[in-house]
């Protein structure tokens, strides 16, 4: 019996993560495919107040924020899972001081704003998953089925606004940063972000940096 061919998208699922954000509310959703699927994306959003979950995604307010490319799918799938778990925690297990003294409307916008958190979460997730992958590669290198290691610049983060990377305190040394190909606002896009303090200096916390107002 001839095996049914696997669609290339399914075969490569996990080799890329696409991050989108709402330019009005700063909500963030993650996707394993370049095209954002309405129902799958909406299921990621947590109800934090009236109209915090739209009926449908509007293309004029949901824009690409970044994409991540991985050398093999397993590390991408694990990173994707971690990102969604972290975001859920930010929306449901937040410090009480974050919304203390705020109105319901202000609280809603504070919790919807996950842009800064998502960048910090990405840096932490990549650091953990790369370290775990390389640890397993070292442990299995002498076996019949050695696990692949992650080399320098094999994980690539492409930013539509490169300065969004500043929301993270540190990035793994093996990660390469560059501008997204579709971003045309930069006249001379560098190939890599240097880890200079003035470029990748992070806020002291991963909490939201701005409070959106109605």
TrEMBL record:
Subcellular location, record wording: Mitochondrion
Keyword field contains Cell inner membrane: no
Superkingdom: Eukaryota
Presence of keyword Transcription regulation: yes
A Pfam cross-reference name: Mhr1
Keywords: Mitochondrion, Ribonucleoprotein, Ribosomal protein, Transcription, Transcription regulation
Family membership noted in the UniProt record: Belongs to the mitochondrion-specific ribosomal protein mL67 family.
Protein name: Large ribosomal subunit protein mL67
Protein source organism: Discina gigas
Lineage: Eukaryota, Fungi, Dikarya, Ascomycota, Pezizomycotina
């Amino acid at each position: 019996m001839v095996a049914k061919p696997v669609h290339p998208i399914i075969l490569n699922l996990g080799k890329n993560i696409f991050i989108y954000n709402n330019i009005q509310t700063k909500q963030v959703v993650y996707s394993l495919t370049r095209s954002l699927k309405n129902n799958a994306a909406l299921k990621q959003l947590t109800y934090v107040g009236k109209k915090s979950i739209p009926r449908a995604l509007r293309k004029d307010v949901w824009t690409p924020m970044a994409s991540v490319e991985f050398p093999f799918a397993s590390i991408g799938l694990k990173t994707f899972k971690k990102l969604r778990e972290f975001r859920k925690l930010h929306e449901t297990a937040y410090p009480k001081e974050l919304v203390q003294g705020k109105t319901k409307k202000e609280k809603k916008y504070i919790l919807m704003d996950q842009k800064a958190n998502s960048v910090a979460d990405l840096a932490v997730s990549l650091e953990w998953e790369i370290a775990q992958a390389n640890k397993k590669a070292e442990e299995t290198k002498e076996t019949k089925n050695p696990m692949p290691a992650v080399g320098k610049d094999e994980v690539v983060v492409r930013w539509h606004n490169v300065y969004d990377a500043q929301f993270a305190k540190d990035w793994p040394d093996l990660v390469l940063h560059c501008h997204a190909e579709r971003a045309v606002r930069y006249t001379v896009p560098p190939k890599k972000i240097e880890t200079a303090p003035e470029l990748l200096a992070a806020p002291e916390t991963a909490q939201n940096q701005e409070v959106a107002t109605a």
